[in-house]
């Protein structure tokens, strides 16, 4: 502890107790110490207003961040589903020629024995993944899902109709993976296309 002998002052200790421990009497406050003045009501109201404004701003920030995070989660989930669907569609599209071969073998009576079981298993698996075939003889021609490979006129139809399915179409959900390739017949009374345009 420093002493006066080496030129340093001893530490100063102030007794700020309101009651004198020796006499038990209340001490008087020194004149140099001022009693803190409580803030005026207008200052309190201004401080409360500032705090409320800050609270409102922070609450708004948190709500905005929560909405952004919710939107982000939805986007990620939607993108994840879209990527999965795209991957499944790509894999199924690669299997379409195999399904065509199975269909031709079935049409020619060559789908027998163990090969028939394998074909049935494959068809069940792709159906479970959402692949559906479409295109039947007699369907009205729809250029969004049919590809016309042959064209003719017939008295048996009243509108453009698929009279023969050359290759079935496939879709996964609403997405067309391959249009049905068909022969189309139109009513005979349809006016022929004019070649006299030159």
Automatic annotation (TrEMBL):
Highest taxon of the lineage: Bacteria
One Pfam family in the UniProt entry: GrpE
Keywords: Chaperone, Coiled coil, Cytoplasm, Stress response
Coiled coil: 55-82
Subcellular localization, as worded in the UniProt entry: Cytoplasm
Region of interest (Disordered), residue spans: 1-43
Keyword Coiled coil included in the entry's annotation: yes
Biased composition (Basic and acidic residues): 1-32
Database matches in InterPro entries: GrpE
Its job: Participates actively in the response to hyperosmotic and heat shock by preventing the aggregation of stress-denatured proteins, in association with DnaK and GrpE. It is the nucleotide exchange factor for DnaK and may function as a thermosensor. Unfolded proteins bind initially to DnaJ; upon interaction with the DnaJ-bound protein, DnaK hydrolyzes its bound ATP, resulting in the formation of a stable complex. GrpE releases ADP from DnaK; ATP binding to DnaK triggers the release of the substrate protein, thus completing the reaction cycle.
Subunit structure: Homodimer.
NCBIfam families, per database record: PRK14163.1
Family of the protein in this entry: Belongs to the GrpE family.
Protein name: Protein GrpE
Source species of the chain: Nonomuraea guangzhouensis
Gene that this sequence comes from: grpE
